[in-house]
Write a structure and sequence with these properties.
- The chain contains six helices and three strands; from the N terminus they run ααβααββαα.
- Helix content is 67%, strand content 8%.
- The longest helix is centred in the C-terminal third of the chain and has 24 residues, at 123-146.
- The protein has helices spanning 9-30, 37-46, 52-59, 63-75, 97-117, 123-146, and strands spanning 50-51, 79-83, 91-95.
- Strands 1-3-2 form a three-stranded antiparallel β-sheet.
- The model has no long low-confidence stretch (mean pLDDT 93).
- The protein has a single domain, classed as Arc Repressor Mutant, subunit A.
């Protein structure tokens, strides 16, 4: 069996992912937001009245997962679901005023984590890092397409 090299680029990358995930969750929890909610809040804040199907597609998650998320968020008064006026078969999702406030808090959390991630990194280093991240993303995306 091969020994895990904790100084390897890949291990450091995994550690960054884990730390980012944990830090974001801690800060979101402090403002009363569950980890999966910010993307939905951001989408609905930008363009309310999305169908559940459209939300699932934009977030790239299963419609059943959206249903569970929406039940929790609706119970908390963050979103509301209403039947489409033109087609009663479609349920549309709207962000509430409370949801908008939480969305603003989520933006602040994301800004804080971003600032923490990239503190002490020069503008030039950020440009290089961005290019490398894009290449990593493209590599993984291409690998998925080959499957």
């Amino acid at each position: 069996m091969k020994k895990l090299d904790k100084d390897s680029l890949y291990f450091i990358f995994l550690e960054i992912l884990r730390l980012h995930y944990y830090r974001t969750h801690v800060l979101l929890e402090e403002v009363g937001i569950y980890p999966g909610q910010p993307p939905m809040l951001f989408i609905l804040n930008e363009e309310g009245g999305q169908s559940q199907r459209a939300l699932a597609e934009r977030m790239q998650i299963k419609p059943s997962t959206i249903t569970v998320m929406l039940k929790r968020m609706e119970k908390e008064g963050i979103v509301e679901r209403r039947k489409d006026e033109m087609d009663q078969r479609i349920t549309r999702v709207y962000i509430t005023e409370k949801g908008r406030k939480l969305c603003n808090e989520a933006f602040k959390v994301m800004d804080k984590v971003r600032d923490e991630c990239f503190a002490n990194i020069t503008a030039e280093e950020k440009i290089i890092l961005r290019r490398l991240f894009i290449q990593i993303r493209d590599n993984l995306s291409n690998a998925l397409e080959e499957v």
